[in-house]
Amino acid sequence: MWHQEAFIYETHRMGNGYIAVYGRLVKDNLRCVVVNVYAACNLRDKKTLWMELSNIKSSSHEVLWCFCGDFNAIRSHDERRGSTNRVDYTSEIRGFNSFIDDNLLLDTPIMGKNYTWFNSNGSAKSKIDRVLVTEEWMEKWPTCKQYAQRREVSDHCAIVVKSVVRDT
To answer: Taking CA atoms, which of 12, 78, 82, 102 is between 20 and 30 Å from 23?
Structure first.
């Protein structure tokens, strides 16, 4: 995205918990939006963020969207393991899945690890970092996947988005 021969930055929009970068893919002369997300931990603030992200997407004519980062939310109970916290995540799961469905987003396949956050002693883990894209994004890059990297300086695994096409 930061390679000027591949992507031309046009503008950006920032809000509480996100920065959206709007630009143009040089090779295809297509506009796209990449939104880096860092969600709060409490459900009320997450719902506010999801609403704001929905509003910026619905108010735009762009079709190539990628929302990536720390959503601090899970899509199913299977995405959280080992937590001693007795919170019922059903409302969060329902709200997050509604955000994804309402915006016609696809959760790209994850490679390498099933979880992206680990507590310091490794006894609890969650999949709270992810890459969500539009169908048009997947049509453009049908092999697009998210690759969870080794956890080194954070309690989160870095995520790399790649679309790899190999000649056979």
So the answer is: 102
Of 68, 87, 81, nearest to 118 (Cα)? 81
The rounded distance, in Å, linking the Cα atoms of 145 and 131 is 8
Helices 43-58 and 90-102 pack at an angle, to 10 degrees, of 0
**pTM of the predicted model, to two decimals?**
0.89
In a domain, 2, yes or no: no
What is the C-alpha separation between 106 and 67, in angstroms, rounded?
Answer: 10
Is residue 125 within 8 A of residue 98, CB to CB? The reply is: no
* Number of domains present in the structure of the chain: 1
Tens of pLDDT along 16-50?
Answer: 999 999 999 998 899 999 999 999 989 999 999 99
Residue type at position 122:
G
- Asked whether residue 151 carries a pLDDT value surpassing 50, the answer given is yes
Residue 137 lies in a domain: yes
Sign of the dihedral through C-alpha 126, 130, 132, 137: negative
- Cα separation, 163 vs 91, in Å, equals 33
SS3 assignment for 31-50: EEEEEEEECCCCHHHHHHHH
CB-based contact 158:149 (threshold 8 Å): yes
- State both tokens at 2: 């930061």
